[in-house]
Amino acid sequence: MILVINSGSSSVKYQLIDLDAPERRVTGKIERIGEAGSDVPDHEAALKRVAEEVAMDSGELVAIGHRVVHGGPDLTGPVLITDEVVQKIAEAVPLAPLHNPANLAGIEIARKMRPDLPQIAVFDTAFHAAMPAAARTYAVDREIAERYGVRRYGFHGTSTAFVAREAARFAERPAAANVIVLHLGNGASATAVAAGRCVDTSMGMTPLEGLVMGTRSGDVDPGAIFHLLRAGLPADQVEEMLNHHSGLAGLCGDNDMRRVLERVKAGDAAAATAYGVYCHRLRRYIGAFCAVLGKVDVIAFTGGVGENSAQVRRDALGGLEPMGIRLDPMRNSGGAGDAPRRVSADNSRVTVLVVPTDEELEIARETSAVVARTKSQ
Ligand code: ADP
């Protein structure tokens, strides 16, 4: 049994997974950490609750896998957590101030609870570490970029790796497929994968870059930010605005795509604008990544929006028949479930799939692989 812990700023999610029977798993979520009126004052209390719910002292537990958002420049693959690794995750806090501190809190408490167990960190940035320099590098002053660590990292890597592999397998091109993964949840990213390796991704130094998201802006001209700073808005407020009051929420007040679609249907103009900007940006990245890859075998949709919204898939891909992309309207609007499914037409050169993501299973697999490697050394 492997315990997967995703320790966020206000919640701790966990799954207890047996890799021999991953469909039977125990899952749970401790919410409202540190909020007024909550009986979970801090991460220590939350992890204690997890320990009670999953019998963390059980002898069946062989390892704990922790989701960590940012591995910084050095942690480019899943690793056994040591004091040195904890130090490196702490050094990456300035790169992910909203996420890494909570991830670290979970790690430190779990290590205190089960110092005997191997604990593994699995990074959202790791899959993108293979990105070529041309895609990873911002065209800014080199010395300053190096001194301050300004470069592109990419996120959603664990989900993207899982989906790209499932998609390639489904398309019966397991080793060689060129895949565009569109992870559309609250956060959203597009990634170009060639034969299992990331060659470009839409998120950058932070998860702010790229697609329009629930509350994040995605791409904005940096000049607009200086304009706001010079107009007197404090930097913290601009950052807060771009992360929490932008994207769909910024444009129409709702970050939930289901609500946005309901309002579009009812003729709401602000929701229609938000939806239009969302789909336009998505098409722009799909086009860009078709060019980056040259030849695309599979486009895979995942995440709450990507898996469930036939309308978003249709509006992202409609009219792209000249690029070899043709949806089948019946397949696109039907079906559900946990298995990958084809939504493209039989005569579509590019296979379009819906691939439900399973980040926790991927973390459990990575955790198990690191444990096996460590043992054999
Ligand atoms: P997170 O990124 O927080 O893990 P999810 O991947 O669950 O989030 O995605 C959440 C998003 O998925 C929300 O915007 C929600 O509205 C959207 N979503 C879920 N079901 C549907 C649906 N049937 N149609 C459109 N959007 C949906």
UniProtKB/TrEMBL annotation:
Q: Which reaction does it catalyse?
A: acetate + ATP = acetyl phosphate + ADP
Supply one GO molecular-function term: acetate kinase activity
Q: In which pathway does it act?
A: Metabolic intermediate biosynthesis; acetyl-CoA biosynthesis; acetyl-CoA from acetate: step 1/2
Q: Where is the active site?
A: 124 (proton donor/acceptor)
Identify which top EC class this enzyme belongs to: transferase
List positions binding substrate.
67
User: How does this polypeptide assemble, per the annotation?
Assistant: Homodimer.
- For this entry, the protein name equals Acetate kinase
Q: Which species is this UniProt entry from?
A: Sphaerisporangium rufum
